[in-house]
Amino acid sequence: MKPDYNLVWVVVLMVLAQLTAFYLVKDLDWKWVVFWAYVFGSCISHSMTLAIHEISHNSAFGNSKAMWNRWFGIFANLPLGLPYSISFKRYHMDHHRYLGGDGIDVDIPTNFEGWFFCTRFRKFIWIVLQPFFYAIRPLCINPKPITRLEIINLLAQLSFDVVIYYLWGVKSTFYMLAGSVLGLGLHPISGHFIAEHYMFLKGHETYSYYGPLNLLTFNVGYHNEHHDFPNIPGKSLPLVKKIAAEYYDNLPQYNSWIKVLYDFVMDDTISPYSRMKRQLKGEVKQD
C-alpha cells in the first residue's frame, strides 16, 4: 500500500499525447476528426478516467499528500473536456464504503433505468448513453452540496476548453469532447462498467477481468482485488492475485469486455436491474 509514482509520468504523457492530437486534427476533414476521436481519442479519454480513478485513491502521491492528488486529478481531467475528477472522488469513496447502498452508491442504476431499458434494443441504447446516465444519476440518487474544489475543477476545465477552442478551433474542441463521450459509451473498454458488478451469476456481486485491456486501464479489471485492497495501486493488483491465488483463481471471471457487452444485450435475464442493492443500517458517513 504505497504510491505509484510512475502514474504521475504516465498521466503527463497522456495529457501531452492528447494536446498533440488536438493540434493534428484541427485541419482534418470532419470524417477524419470523428474517426480519430473514436479510434484514438476515446481510448486515451477512457484510460484517463481510470487514471483519475487511481488518483482518487491517492495512488499518485500517497494518503499523506491528499491535496496533491486532488490538484493532480484536476490536471489529468483537462483533456477530457468535462469537469469530472473532484466529483468522481466524492462519489467513488461512497461506492467503496457502501457498495450497493440504496440512495448512496450512485453506481446502482435508477429504477427508471431498470424498468425502461429491458429489451435488447433498449439495453443497447443504454450502453451508448452510459456517459449521460453516469453524469445525471448522482443528481437524482444522492445530490451533494457543491464544494470549493468542484468549483475550481469546473473553472479550470472551462478555461482549458476556451484555450483549446481559441488556439485550434472547433474541430479540436469537438475531438476532445467526442472522444470522452464515445469512449465511455459503445466502446470495448466500457465493458468494465458492466463487468464489475452486474450479477451474471446469482450470488456473485463483483467480478474480475484478466484480459489485455488492463494494460490501458491501470488494471481496473482486477476488481475483486481492488475492492479487497482499495489502497493498493492498480500497478500492484496482479501481485495481489499472485500472492493470494487461492482466494481469486476459482472466482467467476472475465477475459473479454466485448463479450460482456454482447452478453448483457443478448441475455434476456440481465438488465440494469441485475445489481445487488442494500438497505443501509446505522450511521452513514459520506464525503
What are the SSEs and their pairings?
Elements: H1 6-24, H2 30-56, H3 66-77, H4 85-97, H5 111-116, H6 120-128, H7 130-141, H8 148-168, H9 170-183, H10 191-195, E1 208-209, H11 223-228, H12 237-243, H13 245-248, E2 253-254, H14 257-266
Helix pairs in contact: 1-2, 1-9, 2-3, 2-4, 2-9, 6-14, 8-9
Question: Describe it for me?
Answer:
It is a single chain. This protein has 14 helices and two strands; from the N terminus they run H-H-H-H-H-H-H-H-H-H-E-H-H-H-E-H. 57% of the residues lie in helices and 1% in strands. It has 287 residues and is mostly helical. A two-stranded parallel sheet has the order 1-2. It has helices at residues 6-24, 30-56, 66-77, 85-97, 111-116, 120-128, 130-141, 148-168, 170-183, 191-195, 223-228, 237-243, 245-248, 257-266, and strands spanning 208-209, 253-254.
Please provide the count of β strands. 2
Mean pLDDT: 95
List unreliable stretches of 5+ residues.
none
Order of helices and strands: HHHHHHHHHHEHHHEH
**Strand portion:** under 5%
User: How many helical elements?
Assistant: 14
Protein name: Sphingolipid delta(4)-desaturase DES1
Keywords: Endoplasmic reticulum, Isomerase, Lipid biosynthesis, Lipid metabolism, Membrane, Oxidoreductase, Transmembrane, Transmembrane helix
Main location: membrane
Function: Has sphingolipid-delta-4-desaturase activity. Converts D-erythro-sphinganine to D-erythro-sphingosine (E-sphing-4-enine). Catalyzes the equilibrium isomerization of retinols.
